[in-house]
Amino acid sequence: IRQIFQNLKHQIDTETSDSLSSPTNVINMPIRFKRSQASLGASDRKALNDLAVRIKQSLAEGQVKIYVVGLAPDEPPGQERWILSARRARAVHEFLEHRLSGETTTGGWNLVSWGAGAPQPYDSRSRGTDDRTFIRIAIHRGH
């Protein structure tokens, strides 16, 4: 799975603008989990809600694939880091899925999530990335 995200990363330009107009956008979300936790706080839910609104206004349901990648740079290396990063990704996935499908029953929003452990070396070149980035979302049109 990590290789898939690396390939996706190498095929696109990182986009952090608000427009979502590129074929693929990678967004480093301003989500800050407490150490060893995967619960979303109020500011996290607001940021994700704002993103869901932008997605629904800018993109057509059923024509995009949304990848949610969880990271756990605050956890020591090992199996627990992978598990925590997956739990974080799943929390964001479920929140976005609920917000995006709130007005429709077709289920046309295609979301995929996984944990990637810690950020990889190439991540530091992405605008807005630091060791406190816990969630990265890639939105790809025309899957």
TrEMBL record:
Domain OmpA-like: 32-126
Classification via Pfam families: OmpA
The protein's name: OmpA-like domain-containing protein
Organism: marine sediment metagenome
